[in-house]
Amino acid sequence: MKLAFCPLFSGSSGNAVYMASQQARILVDAGVSATAICQALAEIDVQPSQLDGILVTHEHTDHTRALQTMARKYGIPIYANRATFDALGKKTEAIPTGLARVFETGQEFYIGNLAVRSFSIPHDAADPVGFAVHANGKKACVMTDLGHVPVRLLEQAAQADVMLLESNHDVHLLEQGKYPAYLKRRILSTKGHLSNETAGYTAVQLAQRGVKRFFLGHLSQENNREDVALSAVCGALTAQQIQPGRDVALAMAHRNCRSTLVVLDR
């Protein structure tokens, strides 16, 4: 196994992604209950005590709900930049001494043989980041919670063997939905979340930059559906003669259950 990748939970109600090499195991975010995370890990034969770290994208609760419990109960180091730790406030204080590991955004660091590089993303948080993780010549990327996709982010994800890409909302469903006007404006802003349409355009740009496999994730519970997101992104790809199932792999990262475990061996 060169690199394994598995979205455990992905949605507006909570997020956690598992990655592993033969030498190290990590999560990106822990935004559901510790019980739910441990149950999902057990489905892929991983014990929480085997985790070597949890990377934090940003401080919002749907990405950090279980941090303290996972750190205290299983002794798992928590990796975040300084602004994110500061924004977590009392949650940071509850992490045992020595388990809070500060990284500088953009600077590469290692967890075992996993090379981790964070990159800034446009979202309404203190210092939000996505992650690119390399091991054994393979690359995995997590890029959710962003209001738009500048070219620099396309370059960060280029040549990824697998990635989680946000496809948060259908614009029509959002505009016609019950959210208050201020929340709709926040979601649609350049520091909000990606629509299905923008996710489709982004997937095209990334496929042209060598990305081989996509999971669509962080769907809104109120303003999206898996079939709607998948149809929009498939349509964008096929319109540019990029055929899902032939040229790229395309799957959904589910809200309330584990998604497919991808093991990159070659």
What does this 3D model show about the protein?
The protein has ten helices and 14 strands. The chain is α/β, with parallel strands linked by helices. The strands form two sheets. The chain has a seven-stranded mixed β-sheet. The protein has a seven-stranded mixed β-sheet with strand order 7-8-9-10-11-12-13. Helix 9 packs across helix 10. The longest helix is centred in the C-terminal third of the chain and has 14 residues.
Topology (SSEs and partners):
Elements: E1 3-9, E2 16-20, E3 25-28, H1 34-43, E4 53-55, H2 61-64, H3 67-74, E5 78-80, H4 82-88, H5 90-93, E6 100-102, E7 109-111, E8 114-120, E9 129-135, E10 138-143, H6 151-157, E11 162-166, H7 171-176, H8 181-188, H9 196-207, E12 213-217, H10 226-239, E13 249-252, E14 262-264
Parallel strand pairs: 3-4, 4-5, 5-6, 10-11, 11-12, 12-13
Antiparallel strand pairs: 1-2, 1-14, 2-3, 7-8, 8-9, 9-10
